């Protein structure tokens, strides 16, 4: 009877230690899996700077492929921190209500703001251009999350000049290529991203020097 009583009394100390060890191991495995899953989920919902930059460059490329001339002036001007060009209203981010419902050409400007580390977009409507207004119809930060942005221009400033890269572009001629370069952090690493955008309307208007 004493042997049966000892067997029904409960688990031995060694059995309890083994059970505790197994439970702690399983708990560690479950915790590691949950932590990894939460980290992957957090990364998936956090927009990466490179992804946002790619979307911006895709939009800019679409606009540069549809630039238009205005009043025989330079259709595209820029410096290392900005670019400006004329665009048909249906290609820009303006509704008919915003540009008076008459359509026409708008002036689009992208400028790097070093204080906000972002790209500010301003749009002057057709009515703004006619009235020579200094207040744009649209002004907003369209891209953030990077540390630097630079524009460069490849083309011929005049019909008799050789093509080269310039940090400043001004005049009636339109560059063949626009290079946009970004510097941004991804984690603890500083990365660079550059893209060349071709401009189909490249060249000089008649009478350019």
Q: Low-confidence parts lasting 5 or more residues at pLDDT below 50?
A: 92-102
Apparent shape: elongated
Q: Average pLDDT across residues?
A: 78
Please provide the ordered H/E string of secondary-structure elements: HHHEEEEHEEEEE
Radius of gyration: 30 Å
Q: Please describe the biggest sheet, giving its number of strands, its sense, and whether it closes into a barrel.
A: 5 strands, antiparallel
Q: Biggest sheet: strands side by side, in what order?
A: 1-2-3-4-5
Strand-pairing-aware structural class? alpha+beta
How many individual helices? 4
How many extended strands? 9
Molecular structure report:
The structure is a single chain. The protein has about 210 residues and is α+β, with helices and mostly antiparallel strands. The chain folds into 2 domains: about 1-45; about 50-200, no CATH class. It is built from 4 helices and 9 strands. Strands 1-2-3-4-5 form a 5-stranded antiparallel beta sheet. A 4-stranded antiparallel beta sheet has the order 7-6-8-9, with helices on one face. The termini are far apart.
Task: Quickly list its features.
209 residues, single chain, four-stranded antiparallel beta sheet, elongated, alpha+beta, 2 domains
List the helices and strands and how they pair.
Blueprint: H1 2-8, H2 13-45, H3 49-64, E1 76-79, E2 82-88, E3 105-113, E4 118-124, H4 126-131, E5 138-144, E6 148-155, E7 164-166, E8 177-186, E9 189-198
Antiparallel strand pairs: 1-2, 2-3, 3-4, 4-5, 6-7, 6-8, 8-9
